[in-house]
Amino acid sequence: MSNPTNAPAQPTWSGSSEQQTLAERAFNVMMLQSAFFPENVPVRQTVANLAAFIASQDGVDASALESTISAALEANSQIFRRIDDGERVVYATTRLGYYTEPQIDTRHTFAKRLHEPENPLPIDDLSVVITRTRPALTTIEPVFISDYWQQRSPTTGEEGEIINVAPISSSSDAELDEAFEDDVEPVAVAPVAVAPAAVVEAPTPVVAANSTTLVLPGGAALDFAQSVENILAVHGSTIQAALSTAIDNDPLRRIVAFGDEYFAEENIPTLSKGDLRRIREYIVEQGEPMPDTSILSDVYYRNPRDNDYVTFRFALNYRLNREKDFEFVGVQGARLWSAKGLPAVGTKRLKTSELGQFYSFLEETPQFDDSLKQTSPDDIKQNRQLSRFLSFFEWEYGVLPYDAAMKALLPQPLLPEQRTAILRIESPQHYSFYLAELRYPTANRGGWLHGLEDFFKEHLVPGALITLSATDDPSVWTLQYEETSGADVKLLQQDDKKGRYAFVKHTFYCDADNDLIASQDRLPRLKNMKVLTPGERRRLATTAGYVLEQVGQPRPGDRAGFELSIDDLFLGVNVQRPATRSYLLGELAEEQDFLVEEAAVIYFPPPEDETSVENKNFDQDDE
């Protein structure tokens, strides 16, 4: 009686009770593997795999079971067949409960049915297969072919010559039949050379004939005989660049990209105006930029288990990136979107253009970047954290410069034209978080991270040592500092209403460098120093000259001037604007009104003209 459920047979086991148990368990494991096999098809398995599976269930060592399982299978040789192919030993059985040699049935094949029909058609009936009746020729409308593809057409001659074939003229059916019957020699048509349009092409990889080598655009040779891992490790960046160039040069734009992902444009869905309105309202309602995963789950009720989740997620990012009401502010691994109507992140006391000009020296003169003197970019990337001291300017405006050290720590932009990225800065010591905006540098402006003004003013002082660390989420970072016992200080603070600086009593509980704390004990003459306008602060020499006049010691003599130590000048300048020590000394050394000595800087103010004297007197009257 047949077995309708295709259940495996239950054989009779031999050997000791332990061997019978192991043989039965091995047989059941192999039957699980062959759940959808025909009953006479062998199923093969190695002793090592069987031992590993049984050992995982019993919680024992697999190597100790291999010899025991081999003995059990040998004791049941009527059920298991031992097969040794020279490289490894396997045991085979079938669902019948014993091993049978597989046999291939060649009695009824497709080749025989195709070439040896049982009832071939007679000669009289060949008209159903071959006919001399020609169908009417239809009019073929001309189709424009892009010059891009004409350069790659297989019908092109040497140096891009395009061979035109003379069109077939319309004729009557009788003339066509007569031409078909007569043995007419074909007429050779001379090719017509058409000068191709000028096309600027990307370098094309060259494949040598009968070879596994591909010559990349840069001249490097890629051997396909190597493994994929080795190829990507050596030529991964070159292949990605060549692929991106080829996709960008495609005039049909059949493949679109977002970041490092590529999809066929015809396969990704579109977003309607209603979809865009719902997404924008959702982001504005949340009050902060939202990741694409939250938009998919909260607006579209989609989850990663959906079959088209990856495609729809790409479509969402690609479509939003083409809309002017949305801005991508995410990074690799965390794709955040901002919408028109969200509040600005960061300080409003300075414009973004002014901050960009202050930090432009980091891009224009990278030799003045001192951020990597104490550590290296490799150490920062490996440790995924960075420690630094706050200057007064950074503390006052809640800003951190995007210098070489921060570039090694913080994520790079994902899109070519990306300007900003929103990061979530968490404080484990105070169970709070802050949204910070990372502004990437442009051609003539530097970059910075701002949005930490409240945290700095509430918990830190200028000169505090802070540590910025990465987390498992690429958009979330932690900011910590070393806590100490409380200390009181008369700290310099900016009075925005009066436009001047004043000392205010302040208590802080953080570890700080005393040389960077702008206190009354350190530089009492900073009191009542005015806050320079952005135009005055833009030029470093102008800022340094003003600080020397306010804080420096007068030098009488033929050429009157003001003198101040380098440490005090560095502190005073950073009250007004950001500057590194090397940038400050390097710029002042080029100015004729400054004399940079070993431990001090001397400033010789230029003689005042009548206009400047009148302006100075006018300012004093206003006071």
From TrEMBL:
This is Uncharacterized protein. It comes from Herpetosiphon gulosus. The lineage of its organism: Bacteria, Bacillati, Chloroflexota, Chloroflexia, Herpetosiphonales.
